[in-house]
Amino acid sequence: MTLNELNALRKKARDHIYMVGLKRAARIQIGYGTCGIAAGAKPVYNAFIKKIEEYNIPNVTVVKVGCMGECAFEPIVEIVESDGTKTIYCSVNERMSSEIFEEHVLKGQRLDKYLLSKTKR
Amino acid sequence: MLDRMHILICGGPDCKDKSIPIRDAFKANIKKHHLENEVSAVITGCFGLCALGPHILIYPGEILYSGVSEENIQEIFEEHVMKNNPVERLLYRGKFDRMKLKNRSELTFFAQQERIVLRNCGTINPLDINEYIGRDGYMALAKVLTEMTPEEVISEVKKSGLRGRGGGGFPTGLKWEFAKKSISDEKYVVCNADEGDPGAFMDRAVLEGDPHTVLEAMAICGYAIGSHTGYIYIRAEYPVAVERLEIAIGQAKKLGLLGKNIFESGFDFDIEIRLGAGAFVCGEETALMASIEGERGMPRKKPPFPAVKGLFGKPTNVNNVETFANIPPIFLKGADWFKSIGTEKSSGTKVFALGGKIANTGLLEVPMGTTLREVIFDIGGGIPNNKKFKAVQTGGPSGGCITEEMLDTPIDFDNLIALGSMMGSGGMIVMDEDTCMVDVARFYLEFTVDESCGKCTPCREGTKRMLDILNRICQGRGNLDDLNILERLARIIKNSSLCGLGQTAPNPVLSTLKYFKDEYIAHVTDKVCPAGVCSKLTKYVILDNCIGCTKCAKNCPVGAITGNVKEKHKINSKLCTKCGVCKSICPVEAISTKPEKWRAIYAKAN
Fold first, then answer.
1. What is the pLDDT at residue B96?
2. Strands across the sheet with B427-432, in order?
3. Which residues of A touch B126 (CB under 8 A)?
4. Is the ipTM of this structure higher than 0.85?
């Protein structure tokens, strides 16, 4: 790989991560370190995948990410929207994940009761 | 219609006099800013927690302020209501319920951190190299290979002031320079991922959350010292990290970011993984290299240092995972930027794994120079259940305890050593009033006795004898002379052990002896454990707040507890085996092992 190729790849990947040019897109990041897996991130991840297949909506991706640091509150689900809003839900289980998907991802209705934080980083 | 924001002010009997002026101050501000249709301020019933009143609860977010006075209203209105920035200083501190705690951590947990090592952890998909590249991944390697000479790379690392994050704190740039100066046909870069301290898991988090950063940094190091092969030595009990590293190496090779002729610079670099069986001593660099070579993991004497004669007899540079994770940002943002963070002699940040009696267990990264108090009480959320802080253990089995008086010391390598502890890999175990310091010292020593490789006598035999003495003390068979023997043994082991494991093994004992000598003396002369932990030196008693629920009597395995329903129960100390079942199931915490409680009761009985 040359430097130019890396730069091109970087731009493409950056656009993908930050959802450049997409409207109403979301990236669902699930804490999938050892701490998250131990706390039950697997069923949560599967629940989100199932929901996406069920509703067949474009521009929403589920991503496994590493440990965010708040291990005591795993499984942590962070919803990053294309406008830059970040919402962190904590101690998520299967039931909560479908609620989060239907309310937050589909209708844009933040669920304050499950919130860890709402930060713009 | 629902307002944008609701402000609820406590109007209970204790707060009533103060809440009316507070409400009026809010109303005046609302009027001033013409927010009548958006914000409402009302007086409500008692919130409880009257000692800390008056309280204000603001929706959305259920943000709770306590101990508010009229003077604070202006600030709360301007910051919170107008700009949606809760005034952290005035927030309720403590455990009201789980929701509030989360909101509190939302404000402080991330806000006070500076994330360099963990910059990508929890943000990118570690299984996809594109996400790392999208966050400037491999740009530092590209810059190094296309624009810089190996000498420039080393001088940049030296200039940054980066020191080894594995515990020792040796300047990384200097280490690289030594390895570069050694002349050999073959050199090696080794990443030490054998994280073994009890309670430390920062390396695991980096490898699981951002494996490519370590690969990139190893390639940079290889270019700087003139090596073409890297090894990652990782313990097999980190299966997720191992799997992600394997995937990451595969992806990097496929894209040509590892392998032959990287960025058409003519530089080749390859990385292999070596699994360790999880021996603590293999975190020591010479033992680690022996283990990679397939030998038994035992340290050897230094010199020759690994930079001269290391893996397979060739010059080798060994760095910790966290040290490597600092490298790419240094080249992307410059050594001066890195140097500007932290203190003069310890630049950059440090990741800590917070554990023990603390509200927010987890990982955090703060600039060097942050005080322990900020880490434990602000970011960590303090001690749960209103218990009193007793000590914090840093540096794992090699470190020592730090007491309350020293909490305001800024954290850096040299300060912690001056306090008789050490940075170590960054495990921080917080202990509250219910912790027995003799028992803690015993726990850590038990660990080092288990993990001692047995090569040198002071470590193999000395730590065992120290543990025997501590066991004796905890069972009430110790005497004052034991404390002197402990100290003497500790000094000998420190001075005569072959490697870091033995040289630091007595630290937990020495530091607890220094700061908590009264607890040791209580154990040996009064035969009492002040924290009520050592079972031979304590008694279980039921206090007056017993509600007579009979739970303890039903669950006592030896039938030592008697009493009628709704009446205070009693423990027969002759039958009691001090198993602790009653204490753990009591719904009202009426069972105590604290000497000040049981002594009074036993004095009355006699």
1. 37
2. B362-367, B349-356, B427-432, B389-394, B400-403
3. 64-66
4. no
Contact B131 A6 (CB under 8 A): no
Task: Provide the shortest C-alpha distance from residue A56 to chain B (in Å).
Answer: 22
Which among B106, B138, B208 is the nearest to A6, CB-wise?
Answer: B138
Q: Which of B102, B360, B363 comes nearest A67 by C-beta?
A: B363
Kindly state whether residues B227 and B170 are assigned to the same domain: yes
Residue B202 is encoded by which pair of tokens? 């920062």
Q: Of B201, B262, B362, which is closest to A70 when you measure between CB atoms?
A: B362
Domain count, chain B: 5
Low-confidence stretches of chain B (pLDDT < 50) are 1, 94-107
Chosen for mutation from A71, A79, A92 (greatest number of chain B CBs closer than 10 Å) is: A71
Cβ–Cβ gap A66/B210 under 8 Å: yes
Q: What single string gives the DSSP state of each residue in B198-253?
A: TT--HHHHHHHH-HHHHHHHHHHHHHHHT--EEEEEEETT-HHHHHHHHHHHHHHH
| Residue of A10, A76, A113, A121 to mutate, interface with B, max B Cβ within 10 Å | A10
To which H or E segment does residue B144 belong? helix B139-147
d(CA A118, CA B208): 24
pLDDT tens-digit map of B165-180: 988 889 999 999 999 9
Is the CB of residue A65 less than 8 Å away from at least one CB of chain B?
Answer: yes
* CB within 8 Å: A10 and B136: yes
Residue type, B542: I
Q: Are residues B170 and B305 in the same domain?
A: yes
For residue B119, give both structure tokens.
């910059």
What whole-number distance in Å separates Cα of residue A54 and Cα of residue A56? 6
B439: tokens are 């028992």
- pLDDT at residue A45 tops 90: yes
Please report which confidence band the pLDDT of residue A101 belongs to, taking 50, 70 and 90 as the band edges: very high
In a domain, B288, yes or no: yes
Q: What is the pLDDT of residue A119?
A: 38
Residue B155 is assigned to a structural domain of this protein: yes
Residue B52 pLDDT: 66
Q: CATH no. for residue A100?
A: 3.40.30.10
Buried b (16+ CB within 10 A) or exposed e, B444-454: bbebbbebbbe
DSSP B462: I
| B142 in contact with chain A, both atoms CB, cutoff 8 A | yes
The answer to whether position B161 is within a domain reads yes
Q: Which residues of B touch A88 (CB under 8 A)?
A: 106
Give the pLDDT confidence score for residue B493 in this predicted structure: 96
Q: What residues in A contact B103, CB-CB < 8 Å?
A: 115, 117
Tell me whether B236 touches chain A (CB under 8 Å). Answer: no
Contact: A14, B134; criterion CB under 8 Å: yes
What pLDDT, on the 0 to 100 scale, is given for residue B285?
A: 93
For B564-602, write each residue's pLDDT tens digit. 999 999 999 889 999 889 999 999 989 999 888 888 888
Domain span holding position B595: 539-605
